[in-house]
Amino acid sequence: MYYKLQITDNDYKNGVLVSALADHYAQKIAFSDSQLQKESLPKIEKRLFGNHVLELIKQDLSKMLWQDVVSIQDVNSSYAKFNDILMSIINKHSKRRITTAADSTKAWLTPEIRRQTLIKRQLYEGVVSGRICKNIYKHFCDILKNQINESKKKVHSDYIENSHNKMKATWKIVNEIQGRKKQRDSKLNDFIN
Question: pTM score, two decimals?
Answer without folding.
Answer: 0.44
